[in-house]
Design goal:
about 40% helix, Arc Repressor Mutant, subunit A, DNA-binding, four-stranded antiparallel beta sheet, about 250 residues, globular, homodimer
Chain lengths: ~250, ~250
Amino acid sequence: MRASSPHEYSPLISKLESIFTLTEEEREALLSLPMQVAALKEDQDIVREGDRPSRCCLILSGLACAYKVTGDGRRQIVSFTVPGDIPDLQSLHLKVLDTSISTLTPCRVGFIQHEILHDLCRRHYRFAAAFWRETLVDAAIFREWTVNVGRREAYHRMAHVLCEMLMRLRAVGLAEDHACELPITQAEFGDALGVSTVHINRVLQALRSEGLIELKDEQLNILDWERLREVGDFDPTYLHLQREAPR
Amino acid sequence: MRASSPHEYSPLISKLESIFTLTEEEREALLSLPMQVAALKEDQDIVREGDRPSRCCLILSGLACAYKVTGDGRRQIVSFTVPGDIPDLQSLHLKVLDTSISTLTPCRVGFIQHEILHDLCRRHYRFAAAFWRETLVDAAIFREWTVNVGRREAYHRMAHVLCEMLMRLRAVGLAEDHACELPITQAEFGDALGVSTVHINRVLQALRSEGLIELKDEQLNILDWERLREVGDFDPTYLHLQREAPR
DNA sequence: CGTTTGGTTGAAATGTGTCAAACTTTGTGG
DNA sequence: CCACAAAGTTTGACACATTTCAACCAAACG
């Protein structure tokens, strides 16, 4: 664990910049936020359900996920994170965590104290609005996942998350037009989509044999974006990626 | 549509009061919020996916739901609302709505202009925090629903929502210890749980014959709360109902 | 009183889970 | 650098939860 250097904030800053233009003062304020940086291995819990954290975690690099475990020990991943996400930003206002957050790949994670963030939000309403907005986009993704899991068959479900991940990774500069690194195992996809690993395997084979995707060696290649979008019934509105007027 | 009288705000005020104590000034500020009140019939859309609303809707009485429709026309309800909820509070920071909101029963709904709420939040950070928190609790509910739909069988899923609804209604004074009005049809439960109406029917019969619940004439009676909780794998933590220290 | 809405039932079709085994790739220590 | 273990992927057969379809019933309603 070491302190942050200025460039560490770049995933967060570019994410905020993608929504509205930061003033010089705001950029300064962000860059001077004290943050503890840690490098984590894969499959490590960053925080756990039931924790009462005093800080938030900013994913600087790598993939992570938020998940819950049912009484009989089955895991449901409720969202994937991409760099620039703060998956436990909710803890700023909800004392007890109701989800765990775990790395899927090795990650660099920045920890920022709650008080620091509260100060920032109190001083600049635009930051409060920006962070609040982040949590609202998260919520929109949760809603879409409920729809995905509740009303689409596994084949379509899979197409849908692949579309989502590509768009989200592209938004933070981690994907080409129709390709990206996607180091997610079939078991993890299963936990995310509420489907058994075996079935995920079959569904992926179907998508491959239909000529929609290539997925091998942690590398996703979307061969027919238009048809994958249709199959996944994917409409990116819920990701709220468009630039909007500042508040 | 008519203007609000003071007592209209009571569902919202008691909800906020259940989280932290309002100062006299804050209570004043809330009561003086201009709000347009409308009485809606059942099964009416309040707002629709794709809308760009300039106001939020506060459910004053009745049940409503947020839902999305898939490309092939199947509806997924992503959450139920109870009085005091502001199901499109997200629209304060996300321009385009990604879900529709519809009444399930006749409802009284209050509309509050975005500017008014933004002003309030800017002037009193505690309100920003309180409303922000509301949206975070919503998000927690979405997450739990993903788990419910993704990892539990229909029988357990149903038990889970019944527990959730009882707790939420109790929190706003609309339920006894183990009973409440619950005017939700089996088709609506189906859309909420990602299950066909027919199967909802069978699952309800099972819950009834196990002696766990009575559900008839829009009246839910939980006969064995402890076992229903177990069957539904229900842990209310995610509802974040406990009183917390002010911010 | 007929019509609509919501609930109930049965039988057949099907998507998905489970189990168990084999295969492939990756990582690691000797 | 090989050998072995561990992790991830693939396959087939079978079980089962849930859907679909179609009909019927009961209560509410205008």
